From TrEMBL:
It comes from Nonomuraea solani. This is Xanthine dehydrogenase YagS FAD-binding subunit. Pfam families: CO_deh_flav_C, FAD_binding_5. Keywords: Oxidoreductase. It comes from the Bacteria.
Amino acid sequence: MYPFAYTKPADTGAALAAGARGGRYIAGGTTLVDLMRETVERPGTLVDISGLPLDDVRVTGDRLRIGALARMSDVAAHARVRSAYPVVAQALELSASAQLRNMATIGGNLLQRTRCTYFRDVTAACNKRQRGSGCAALEGFNRSHAVLGTSDACVATHPSDLAVALAALDATVHLLGPDGERGVALTAFLLRPGDTPDREHDLRPGELITAVEIPPHPQPLRSGYLKVRDRQSYEFALTSAAVVLHITGGVIRAARVAAGGVATVPWRLTAVERRLVGARPSERLWTEAASAAADGARPLRHNAFKTELLKRTVERQLRTVGGSR
C-alpha cells in the first residue's frame, strides 16, 4: 500500500471541497481498501464521508429514496424495501458476506470496480487500469468475463448485484458536486467500456453520490432476483436476473428485466421485455421471451456457456416471479 493522507470532514461542504482538491471519497471501504493493498488504486488523499447525514431510507408517496451511505444490510432489512421491492432486498442479501454487508454502503456498492483478475494483477495488461496497455483477458482465461456490452478494449463484468435490480427498476442516481446537484439514470450513470474502459461512470471531478431513487411503478408489482454462481456464498455471479412485472387481469401490462454477471454494465433485456408486455403468463411465454435474453452476445473462448445459462436463468426467474397458467 502506498502512503496517503486522510481527512474526515465535518459536513458535506467540507467534503466537497476536499473532493474538488483531488481527494478520493471513502465510506465503508470494503472495495477501495482492498485495491489500495493490491496497489491497483493509489489515492493521495482519502476523504472519509462516513459521518455525513446521507444514510436515510425514505418513502415519499410512491417513491423510495435510499441514502448513499445507508448500509447494505440495513436497506435489505428495511420493511418498506422488503414489501414493495423484494428484488432489491434479495439482490443485497445475495451480495458478499454478512460482515461486508454490515460495512458496505449503497453508493460504494454502485462504484465498486470489476473483479477481473487481470485488472487486479498490476503485472497484467489492463486498459481499465491503464488505458492503451491492452486487455489480457481477451486471449487469457476469460470464463467469468462478459459476453454483452464488450469492446476490443475491455471484457470485464460489472460486479454489483444491487445495480442489476436498480436497473430493472429505472432507478436514478443523485449526485452532488462543485457545480450543484443533478440526477442521472442508473443505466446512463454506469458506462460501457468502448474505447475508454478506465472511465466507468458519469461521475464528475469532486462529485459524490448522495442517494438512489426508485420512481413510482404501477401496482401491484411483482419482483425478484436470481443469482447463479459457482458456490452458494461469497461469490460473484456467473449470471443473474432481476425481473419486475405488473400483471392485472391476467395480462402482463409492464415488464422490466435486467441481467448481471454477463455484461460490462447491468444489462436491460429489452427484447425480453417486448415479448412479455401484452401477453398472458404461461410456461410457453417464459421460454419464448427468455430465448431473446442473449441477443447480441459475443462469447469469448472460455465463456460461451454464459449465453445458454443466461437464457435459462431468465426463464427460471420469469416463472418464479410471474407464475404460470
